[in-house]
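User: Can you write out an input/output pair for a complex, sequences first and structure second?

Assistant: Here is one pair. Inputs:
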Amino acid sequence: MQQDLDQYFTDHREQHLAQYTDFLRIPSVSTKSEHKADIIRAANFVAEEMSTLGFEHVELVETPGHPVVYGDWLHAPGKPTVLVYAHYDVQPAEPFELWKSPPFEADIRDGLIYARGSSDDKSHVFMHLKTCEALFATRNTLPLNIKFCFEGEEEVGSHGLTNLLATDPERFDADLIVISDTSIIGPNQPAICYSLRGIAEFELTVHGANSDLHSGGYGGGVQNATHALVELLSTMHDQQGHISIDGFYEQVRPLSEQERTEMASLPFDEEEFKAFLGVNDLYGEEGYTYRERTSARPTLEVNGIYGGYQGEGGKTVIPNEAHAKISCRLVPDQEPEEILALVEKHIRAHTPKGVTIEIEKHHGARPYITPIDHPAVTIAQQAYEDAYGVPARFTRMGGSIPIVEVFSRTLKKPIVMVGFALPTCNAHAPNEHFSLDNFDKGLRTISSYWLLLSEQYTLSEG
Amino acid sequence: MQQDLDQYFTDHREQHLAQYTDFLRIPSVSTKSEHKADIIRAANFVAEEMSTLGFEHVELVETPGHPVVYGDWLHAPGKPTVLVYAHYDVQPAEPFELWKSPPFEADIRDGLIYARGSSDDKSHVFMHLKTCEALFATRNTLPLNIKFCFEGEEEVGSHGLTNLLATDPERFDADLIVISDTSIIGPNQPAICYSLRGIAEFELTVHGANSDLHSGGYGGGVQNATHALVELLSTMHDQQGHISIDGFYEQVRPLSEQERTEMASLPFDEEEFKAFLGVNDLYGEEGYTYRERTSARPTLEVNGIYGGYQGEGGKTVIPNEAHAKISCRLVPDQEPEEILALVEKHIRAHTPKGVTIEIEKHHGARPYITPIDHPAVTIAQQAYEDAYGVPARFTRMGGSIPIVEVFSRTLKKPIVMVGFALPTCNAHAPNEHFSLDNFDKGLRTISSYWLLLSEQYTLSEG
């Protein structure tokens, strides 16, 4: 680690955290139309930071949805050009009442900063900006060329950026793509993710009678929409935790023995983990370990269910509508469209008597997997070691970053995933937080990575 | 039908509907604490009407919950005393967006008055008040003695009135109890209900991890509370619509062949009924007709289900909590406490791995059945025939009026159920309404009933 950079981050820590807090206080929830103005505020925050740094071509690139914030600094001739990706939009914060501090206040407790987006993914946007700030401040230049591409639709499917990549790939072209939206293994064990799960989402609605019915007058004689939904959903998994949809596993690439061995060797304390989650048992598909289930095996999860009366007290109705929001995490080589077609076929074949069903398909994303022996990956391992004192391990991530597969397919350039969240950070959940220790180490890792790439990475390797 | 009474109702129809509208506009929802003041307004409305009529001992009798409005007129010596029961509280109106006119506005369209409570049960409270008004106006007296007992907790279990009956039965004692909270068969076919279902209600909560979890990072490895709830609920019915809880049917009194024949002879057009409900198929327990299923067989219905994300768009979480509000309709001789114990045993035996469950038991009510050959019933048949032109048939009602069984047990006096709602009135559902034709005929039926009882009912028959 370069001494001057280290000193710069130490001297500016308080200022950086104050700025980070300002950023976290913008509720840039991309899934809710009421937050459209907040999304623009967050995009402007990012764009102003870029402009202040001296980045050029800074622009809120319009999309049919939320803008992509683009900016570049390309004054390191002969050096690699890196496209840096992260996202400034966040998940909804509901249920608000489960947050110990308001989700858009950014409260620091015990070395953790609590806010929606604090890990996923404003941390990475902000650290990339501050890394460049430190490099400019200490060197008046950057060691390589950087294109920033921070999108506002990662949590809703990255449609805008996907279109921009299709229509204007030139703008985003680079020698290397660095994606910052992933986790490491633990506070002191960095990791580089080499595979992501894809996703296929849909909403299932069951329609019964044309209105809710009195459960006294009609109870026993008319199909209850919630019963029909329960019956339908209960056909989707078997007692061993397998998904019981014909053909669901057909395209799944089996884990190699080598991968299973590597995954089994990663640190994992099951008792500690259960205590962290507050559960008596972990649960999942028989025949696979926890790590395998959560990263290399597909899932079908109900993310939300509702129907009938949900208020205070009781109400003796037969609900005439019931809803389930469902998402499938996919692994190589499952295709979202094919999976949704299989699921739809299953639902139509299992729809109970007395109701009709409706399926609204949402966005999908393909799973992604990449070789781990590329020089840019090896250099990233070194950069992590510079900051953490230990080299990065390799992991599969259970989450989906749909745009990664799109970058790979569109730009056909190597991708390295450099992230600093923790598996325990409550991303997408109440009390999301980011460790200030990883904030410090992340800034140092990224600076080292740029400096090492500048020295070691030759363009022919791209 | 007495000509003078008929004329009085015709002359005052507009005035009565205006007053009825005022009554319906009070959102006296007993299950929600925010409506406490509305409950009191509704109680005062009823009490003021009684006082205006010249009733004595008019009082909002305090209970730990909502007051019982009591009043009596006991100046017909030698004539029977009738205790008249109905309730001024109403069910919640949610979901509001499904109402074609606001639930607490009382809109009249095509001969129907639409409002929450318009059928269940303000119609009956109001008709009883106006019947007395007409009798006083035309005769300066009532033909018999009346005690009015209008409660505000029918929709939440009648606890207050149950306690009052236990501590002060004298106040409510009468020769005959008339309960007005039931339906007739169709617009031109009156009916007297001789059996009610009981009810056992509870809320089931499934707890998973200590917060919602990211479905990417954890998906496949941790039990999803909504999955566990679905799995649990799916064990409660079999494919033939029977309830699969050990012992659930043990105390059910089988239908006699005579009852089955009588029920089968009641008018029922299945195709018309399906069209009314907007369903392709009716659904229920194999081996029983629609009428049997909905009145003489017990049920277990999910009245509401919720868990996880229910907002706009999607949110890829593993919900850590899921809830079901459940009620069982019971038939003679099932006991609510026993049924809840059987259900709880079943749930605990079927709780999936990785979650814990919580059961909150709500109020219960015993089912009720009464002989149909009592003179007070025969006289009621005549009164209906006076107004409708055809005698009343006998029906079992699928709903529960918990207090009926309590009256019977506490006061040990005959009970006749005299009601005017229709099975199609959307009680407990959006767009509840009451037919103005039954409003007119109900006023005439009740007046006739009081006059006929005064002439024909001898006290020794009580």
